[in-house]
Amino acid sequence: MRSAHVALAFVGLNAFVIAQNNVTTTNVTLSWVPFNQNQFDNNAALDTNGDVQLYWKVGDEYSTFGIASRSSGYLALGFSQTGAMTGADMAVGYQDQNGSFVFENRNAAGFVTPEVSPDQTNNMHFREGGQKDGVTSFVFDKKNKADCLQTQDDLATDSWQWFIYAFSESNTFAQHSPGNMGKQYLQLGTGNTVSVNTARTVSNTQNFTVTSPVVAIPTDDTTYCYTLHKMPNGTKNFLIGERPTPSSPLLHHLVLYACYGPADQYLPMLGQEPNCNWQNFSNPCTGFVTEWAPGMSARTFEDGYGKPFGSEYYEYAMLETHYNNPQGIAGQTDAASYTFLWTDQQVGVEIGTLTLGDMQVSGWFLEPGKPIVSHSTICTPECTERWPAEGITAVSVFHHMHYRGRNARVQIIRNGTEIAPLSSLRDFDYGYQFAKSLNNVKLLPGDELITTCDYDTRNDTVPAAGGQASQQEMCFAWVDYYPANTVLGCTQVNPSYGDPTQPNTTVGYCVQSTQENADMYASNAFTASFQALPASGNNCTDNALAQANGAAIVKTCPETDVCFSLNVPQASVASGSGDIFFQLSAPTTYSWVALAEGTMMSNANMFLMHSSADGRNVTLSPRMASGHVMPTHNDAAAFTLLEGSGIANGKMTANVQCKNCTSWGSGKMSLQDSGSQWVYAHLSGSPINSDDLNAAISKHDGQGAFQWDLLQATGGPDTNPFLGVTNATYSSSGASKQAQTPLVQAHGALASIAFVAIFPTGAILVRLASIPGLAWIHSGLQIFGYVIFIAAAGCGISIANSYSYLNQPHAIIGLLLLGVLFFMPILGTIHHKIYKQVGRRTVWSYTHIFTGRIGIVLGMINGGLGLQLANANKSYITAYGVCAGLMGAVYISAIVFGEVKHGKESSNVLQSTPSDSREPKSPDGDRSGSEGQL
User: Fold this and answer.
1) Which of 27, 83, 488, 779 has its CA 20 to 30 A from that of 13?
2) Same domain, 129 and 58
3) Same domain for 94 and 232?
4) Where is the composition biased (Basic and acidic residues) (predicted)?
5) Across the chain, which distance is largest between two alpha carbons, in Å?
6) What CATH number has the domain bearing residue 501?
7) Predicted confidence (pLDDT) per residue in 764-788, tens digit
8) Which of 135, 156, 190 is the last residue of a domain?
9) Residue 352, helix vs strand vs coil
10) In this structure, is residue 923 part of a structural domain?
11) Are 175 and 183 in contact (CB under 8 A)?
């Protein structure tokens, strides 16, 4: 049984520190670890004290892991792309109240409570676990290649894997205590190790520190400072290790550039104060040595490897310090430094660094308001042909973006065909940057390298610019490789970005250490076609490469056993309309499954699949709904149920060719949309077994929304793509259970508290209570309720923007209430003052009273509309209806009672006092007892 006490469990993971000792595998038996350690090939301590031990054995399809901690509460192990909690695929074990051990697969969308994955059987297999004698431990299998479910992660079985962990002395899954967490970067595969993200001692080396003189950090948002430094003397030396020393919380990054023959005009900078006039300074140094950014640790090359420098290479280096001071903090100073291990002894393998990405930095913009916006640059064959004939071997890559960054990758195109990528990184986190180790990827002369960065621009209302400021964006990939050669950077530029008088065209850009200026040249690489890898998510099949005439298919499995796929033929994109192909797939344990174009059920272009009359095939029913009612058959849909559809092995499959899905009713779909909106729904239960396209269906018990990048789905002929799946490229897109998101839950809970609890309570009290300060209590409660409603409205507006709900009645009524109720305290104050003067209700009184009454009732009704819009479960609707109905009945009764009471009091006053007498008093002497409030 799963714990019902799930709270924030990993929030403190942003306090991770990296142990500076090298983590190595060992076969030493640890007697306190309760499971059989001989079943594993390797183990490592995850913490510095050795109290958290990880064991593993890499397999073909699944790998086995065991983890043990000297603790008596829950224990969690996460598989992370970056060492951050964001996107981590987690295994969690704890003991429930009945003494049974519980194992769960969870996923963290950020530094929030990790949610239980909908897949508890396929991604991870629980083997054993328990708690005894102050030790918590469990053993499980993890699938090496994740399915299309976006809450899962691939396992880096051929190289290095980030592990994060947390533990507690309590079995309540909640935020751990400070220090009870950590991360480690461990080598799972058998590839050669070239660099390790730790600081360690290397024999026969010396230390050399590049230090910037103290600088007074300006109050500007962005400041770049530059200092020139002389490297240690010698003809040929080698950097062996890097030890950054971040010294100020305002430090955004440190970069050390190699200066290959700097012009004489720059040499006077040697030993001088930092040049922080960055907008008027052009850095002459083009070679990249290394960088520190938030999250990065020290780095050490393995024995026999080193980066060359000296009079044969470069003798000077430029240190760039970037300060980010958005709050304009004054009086801050800094003296940044970078320490290196170096040797004058010849190494066996010389390491070079290649800069990929947007070296032009500025001149490009990102579309606002999108969950994923991609920006790509191409390193052309004309530049890579200058590599040695035998090619180079990439050993690590450092992906760099700013705060909008989400995913990054470097693709390889060889002889016009895309091969396995050089590197892919999902769930980029600005605070957790690192040099990603590679398993020795071979690159050949003439290869084309495509560097892509994905960004989340949902918080932007105007295009986000590329640029040097932290609030702008960058896209870089620095690749360490061997053997070192003269090519320093390879990308594309547009000369008009820097000089409007230049041609507005894209040209190749190749930087070499042997040339003072970079080469710029025309290239066919910018017009060549290639099959793009997915913008985010995992590949859905092992066949990640398209063959000739193969179709590109995007696939998402928003639930473990419910999957949808899409293909857009090349001809349809060229014409702007035409056929699209999609597939619905689900077990026969579902009564029906539906896929629809749109952001909500209302007016969506829906296709519903259920079993046919004979139970051996499927019926596909095109449907539409004018609102949240049962959708009915759509006669206007032009579609064909294709070969491969049917029921087999307990699974329903519908392969569909749609001829008019680019336009329906009031909706349209662009075939070049990188964020096409789709929704889905399903109902578990008995089969429908009907050929009727308008067969009655019961309400769904599950639903959600997701986006598809149609550019990733484009490719192939206008034929059924789902028969020749071996010729298809599968990629995946993200899905979200919209109605179950924390933001939706917060919106509903806060609004319900305001309209079903606080507002009516304040109004009931002023009708029925007779206590001192009643008017102040009433006012305080109503203002408090309005503050809560503001918070609810903020959540609702964010949801409405994300799912295009602003035109829905629920959103319109909510915004209307938000605006009208703002004036209620003002109306109440005016009413109160005038009532005390004249002793009777006025137009201000009635405006205040009836606006409040209508607002409360309308707010209660709107809550029901919101539950309907969110397609909430019946239990939620029932619970809300009961609570709102009871409170509404009490509220209306209080209104009736109050009006009767007010009538009697007014009558008594008229009968017993002159016409100029005072108004009736409340029990505390405040003349508000029967004024009539909200």
Assistant:
1) 27
2) yes
3) no
4) 916-934
5) 112
6) 2.60.120.230
7) 887 777 777 777 888 888 889 889 9
8) 190
9) strand
10) no
11) no
Residue 552, SS3?
Answer: strand
* CA pair distance 415, 412, nearest whole angstrom: 10
Is residue 562 in some structural domain? yes
Compute CA distances 809 → 6, 861, 865, whole Å.
Answer: 34, 11, 8
**Tally of structural domains, the chain:** 5
Q: Are residues 517 and 576 in the same domain?
A: no
Q: Determine the Cα–Cα distance for residues 544 and 549; give it in Å rounded to an integer.
A: 14
Distance separating alpha carbons of residues 597 and 922, to the nearest angstrom = 60
The answer on 79 and 142 residing in a single domain is yes
pLDDT tens figures, 154-189: 888 878 899 999 999 998 877 677 778 999 999 887
Tokens representing 904?
Answer: 């009697």
CATH code where residue 666 lies: 2.60.40.1210
Can you give the C-alpha Rg of the chain in angstroms?
A: 33
Pairing of strands 476-482, 352-357: antiparallel
Residues whose CB is less than 8 angstroms from the CB of residue 512 and which lie 6 or more positions away in sequence, other chains included: 386, 486, 487, 488, 518, 519
> Which residue range(s) make up the domain with 208?
193-350
Answer for the pair 433, 513: CB distance below 8 angstroms, yes or no.
no
| Same-domain pairing of 523 and 375 | yes
pLDDT at site 873:
61
Last residue within a domain, chosen from 717, 737, 757: 737
Look at the alpha carbons of 70, 76, 77, 83 in this order and tell me if their dihedral is positive or negative: negative
DSSP string, 72-83: SS-EEEEEESSS
Q: 3-state class of 851 per DSSP?
A: helix
What are the strands, taking DSSP E only, across 7-159? 42-45, 52-57, 62-69, 75-80, 89-95, 101-107, 115-116, 124-132, 135-143
Distance, first Cα to last Cα, the chain:
47
Overall residue count recorded for the chain in this entry: 934
Query: pLDDT tens digits for 266-308?
Result: 889 998 999 999 988 988 998 999 999 988 888 999 899 999 9
**Cα–Cα dist 737/752, whole Å:** 21
Asked if residues 288 and 255 have their Cβ atoms less than 8 Å apart, the reply is: yes
Q: How far is CA 860 from CA 420, 576, 828, 856, 896, in A?
A: 56, 46, 21, 6, 19
Helices (H), 480-539: 495-498
Task: Please report the sign of the dihedral spanned by the C-alpha atoms of residue 287, residue 289, residue 294, residue 295.
Answer: positive
Do 172 and 99 reside in the same domain of the chain? yes
Residue 186 Cα to chain centre, angstroms: 24
Residue 925 lies in a domain: no
Token output for 392: 């180079």
The Cα–Cα gap between 454 and 366 comes to: 10
Burial of 434 per CB tally in 10 Å (0-12, 13-18, 19+): buried
Contact (Cβ atoms closer than 8 angstroms) between residue 455 and residue 404: yes
| Residues 729, 590 within the same domain | yes
pLDDT in tens, 667-713: 888 888 877 888 899 999 999 999 999 999 988 888 888 888 887 78
b/e burial code for range 444-458 (CB count within 10 A of at least 16 → b): bebbbbbbbbbbbbe
DSSP at 346: P
Residue type at position 849: I
| CA atoms within 13 A of residue 466's CA, in its CB half-sphere | 23
Q: How far apart are CA 424 and CA 429, in angstroms?
A: 14
**381 cis-preceded (ω within 30 degrees of 0):** no
- Residue 203: give its domain's CATH number: 2.60.120.310
Q: How far apart are CA 242 and CA 306, in angstroms?
A: 11
Mean pLDDT of the chain: 83
Tell whether pTM > 0.70.
no
Q: Does residue 930 form part of some domain?
A: no
Helix (H/G/I), strand (E/B), else coil: 487: strand
400 and 344 together in one domain? no
Residue among 687, 215, 253, 678 nearest 474 (CA): 253
| pLDDT, tens only, 91-120 | 999 999 889 999 999 988 766 678 888 777
